[in-house]
Amino acid sequence: MDSHASYEEDVDGHHVLVSGTGGKYHAQKSQSLKPGNMLNNLLGIVPELRQLANLDLKVVFNRDSCNIGPKEWVTLAKALDASRRNYDAFLVVHGTDTMAYTASAMSLMLAGFRKPIVFTGSQLPLAMPRSDARQNLIDSLTCATSSFNPPHVHLQEVALCFGGKLLRGNRARKVHSNVYEAFASPSYPNLARMGVDVEWNTGAMLQPEGVYRPRLRLDPAVLRVPIVPGVDPRVAYGDLVGRGVRGVVLESFGVGNMPSSAWLPWLRAQRKAGLLVSMVSQCAGGALQPELYASGSAALALGVEAGPQMTAETAAVKMMLCLQYPDLPLGVPLAGEM
């Protein structure tokens, strides 16, 4: 934790931890979209937040989100786990480029957390006149504190709030670089939409089962491998295991199809060498059914994992987790990710 922290008093009686990780929220107008020191001033710039909860503000780290990866995910997960008993909800301010990865990581590493962890960010820095940061912050904290106010909706999962939508964190993807509705959830319904009122989709919300067990280790030796027509993986990728890669997220065509002449021999050799392979689809939505094609069936026979469809971001993070925790099957859901 960074030593900079502030505490705001309010009559509401509930406590929310706002964690900062960097991104455009904190960039000054004169900066070229670099993290700045504005995080500690959020409560002064958006005073409406004080009406929703008592807030502790802590900087976990402050950097461009393109530089956030497994090391930072472990740091953030440890910070959230250590604060779990002390707060009713958590709001994480994060840059947009890797927010879907980080939200997926928190949902899997902290499965069963049973308190709201809501991610948000902005397309424009908070200091700019047309910034979306203010509304995203207010919407996010409204959702994070939803159990305290009518209609008392109990959010118990990692979510991502952006552009007027609340999405399951491990189903969200960044789909646009410069519109305010930058994130979507193609494979799962929205948890809520923000208008004059918050329109909750309670039937889509996660109901955690089992005991909370944080898993705070990740193996970053994972690679996303998209199948591209005409590309021979024996030439393009070669011996991944020999170069230290332990897991691959194989991004197939459609329901799980691939060219057999080049890809199957490469998969056979790499699987024999010990490479763990998880298949996803290059399609944003729809089912994963590789058994419908001869090449997909052959990949399954080689030991390629192909459970229900996950986003490629979530599949990569889950691979990192499962490599550190071999008792976790890739094809079994932990937090509604599949």
UniProtKB/TrEMBL annotation:
SUPFAM superfamilies reported for this sequence: Glutaminase/Asparaginase
Residue ranges constituting the L-asparaginase N-terminal domain according to the UniProt record: 16-202
Pfam family membership, one: Asparaginase_C
SMART domains listed in its UniProt record: Asparaginase (SM00870)
GO molecular function, one term: asparaginase activity
Annotated catalytic residues: 96
Binding annotation for substrate: 65, 96-97
Highest taxon listed in the record's lineage: Eukaryota
Database matches in CDD domains: L-asparaginase_I
EC nos: 3.5.1.1
Residue ranges of domain Asparaginase/glutaminase C-terminal in the record: 225-324
GO biological process per UniProt: aspartate family amino acid metabolic process
Protein name, entry field: asparaginase
